[in-house]
Design brief:
This protein is an alpha/beta fold. The protein is 37% helix and 17% strand.
């Protein structure tokens, strides 16, 4: 119930909701009380049959598909939708990256992740968990860690704790730099997170440029979102020369 209520929905600019991996509908039953415009995507054929049998109200809005391959632009016709789910832990990072690819259509997301991943997504600069997921998610969304779900809440209990977060797209989700290059810079910086930018940014900047500024003696976890944007802008400017 608390996870379903984590998606604000009421008073928002969207009406449609997509639930990822509903399984036997433990979350679905609460979502159906909040919206009549719920679509679910489930890759497990047995679970799809179960959903058709126990949630006939969903009708043809039960998609027997893999979310990572789902053509979202076709499903929702370009209209905005909220994203929610008790996300499969083994692909939760991929789900987030795909959500970012469709950020223009997804104004809000609420979901349960493995606790460490949930904390990583909303982690601030300087923390040990701050990384690629943190920077890319926070570039476009305001994140909030909502609550922890104890493993004793599950049957059988998993080996890890779970955490629920909410992401709300920023009013201005457009970066003042090349977005594709920005993502490349962030991923390259954290590819060797213990090394200084002076070493990891050689792919983009000359050695002279990297040695000339003490800024590049920092490690990636020390950089804020604004710092990564600035580095991307520097690279853009030098490429024009």
């Amino acid at each position: 119930m608390r996870i379903a209520d984590s998606l604000q929905l009421s008073g928002t600019a969207y009406h449609q909701v997509l639930e990822i991996g509903p399984g036997k509908g433990m979350l679905t039953k609460y979502l159906l009380k909040k919206t009549t415009e719920l679509t679910v995507v489930e890759a497990d054929r047995d679970m799809v049959d179960y959903l058709h049998k126990h949630y006939p109200a969903l009708g043809n809005r039960i998609l027997a598909e893999d979310f990572l391959r789902l053509p979202l632009e076709d499903i929702f016709g370009g209209a905005p939708f909220g994203l929610i789910g008790n996300f499969p832990y083994n692909i939760s990072s991929q789900i987030l990256f795909r959500m970012l690819d469709y950020k223009d259509q997804i104004p809000e997301m609420a979901g349960m992740f493995q606790k460490e991943v949930a904390e990583r997504i909303v982690a601030p600069p300087g923390s040990k968990t701050y990384g690629i997921l943190s920077v890319l998610a926070q570039a476009f969304y305001e994140g909030q860690y909502l609550f922890t779900v104890d493993k004793a809440c599950f049957t059988p209990p998993p080996k890890v704790q779970s955490g629920v977060i909410r992401l709300i797209r920023k009013t201005n989700a457009t970066l003042p730099c090349n977005e594709k290059l920005f993502k490349q810079v962030v991923k390259q910086a954290f590819s060797q997170r213990r090394k200084m930018l002076r070493n990891t940014m050689k792919l983009f900047l000359s050695e002279d440029a990297l040695l000339a500024d003490s800024f590049f003696t920092q490690r990636p976890e020390q950089l804020s979102l604004e710092d990564f944007i600035q580095v991307t802008q520097w690279i853009e400017e030098r490429r024009k020369v």
